[in-house]
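To fix ideas, we give here one paired sequence and structure record:
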Amino acid sequence: QVRLVESGGGSVQPGGSLRLSCAASGSIFSFNAMGWYRQAPGKRREMVAAITNGGSTNYADSVKGRFTISRDIAKNTVYLQMNSLKPDDTAVYYCNAHLVITATSTNDYWGQGTQVTVSS
């Protein structure tokens, strides 16, 4: 019964910025990590950024220095601030909640996705 709802996508010019939000139906501390993934047509879904419940972050090399993942625990919300956007950032962005059940078993929950389009 986990629900993740993304918002904040849209169309921007190269060099522009967007902030994506992922609102969870419950405490984000219920999960071991929250993250953002993206998928462009014809490409594999890739991890963009993630944050553990301890606050550690990880980013894809392609977005380091441009994107920042953050959270507001009280609002059950995870954000992705995207700056200096490039056309190849164009994709559907998905929120992910990752739950470790055992050392060899995990659950992943996904939002519906929000479209980000970067073009001139």
Remarks:
- The longest strand covers residues 91-102.
- DSSP finds no helices and eleven strands in the chain.
- The two ends are 40 Å apart (CA to CA).
